[in-house]
Amino acid sequence: AGNNTVTIPEVFNNIKVNVYNCMEQEINKLIETFKPLITNIILEDRKYFSFTNIPNWCFFADEDISKVAIFLEKEKLIRINLCSCEYAYSTNNFHMIEYFFLHEIRHYFQYQMVEDYQAGKETIVKKQHIENWQKDYNSYILPNNQDGSTNDEYFFQSIEIDAFVYSYATMKYKYKNVDDLYVPKQYNQFFYDMVDKVVNIFDKQGL
Questions:
Q1: Are the C-beta atoms of 83 and 19 separated by less than 8 Å?
Q2: Cα 136 versus chain centre, distance
Q3: 155-202, pLDDT tens digit by residue?
Q4: Which DSSP letter does residue 150 get?
Q5: Contact in structure between 106 and 167 (CB atoms under 8 Å)
Q6: Rounded distance, CA 137 to CA 111, Å?
């Protein structure tokens, strides 16, 4: 499977910005600004992760701020776009970064479940779900076609539905009002019904 990258133009209205020039000192300055914020998100949200270890993560820089985050499967590494962080922070919208970071956290969890299943280990997810996830990772569909148009099939992969539901449900449980969060237009009431089920699970667990 290829790299699992959130590249949804609608997230930031298809804006491309030169947030900064790519001088090393400027990049380091942004890292110093946003590393504590991401670290705090992890500490606050790890109770929702369904696993105890904290995934490795780092920053990267891409002026296309619709490329919010990426999960590298082989490296088991989550990368977050500094340009997206800068833009979200400057527009008082940093919870969008948290939303997509949680999305990638879920992909990390999915991939771990697939590996555990393949190794014959006991998993906390049903066999059918894991096999669907394994199939998607083996034949991953990218969000955009070669001509740049949106590929609707991307959104209906089981790993993407699960990740969007998980991240939206987590944000809803934590913040209550999440009407401004991005939801793919391809999703209808089935998505919100699944979100409510996850929110109810969090509620029963007393998280």
A1: yes
A2: 16
A3: 999 999 999 999 999 999 999 999 889 999 999 999 999 999 999 999
A4: B
A5: yes
A6: 8
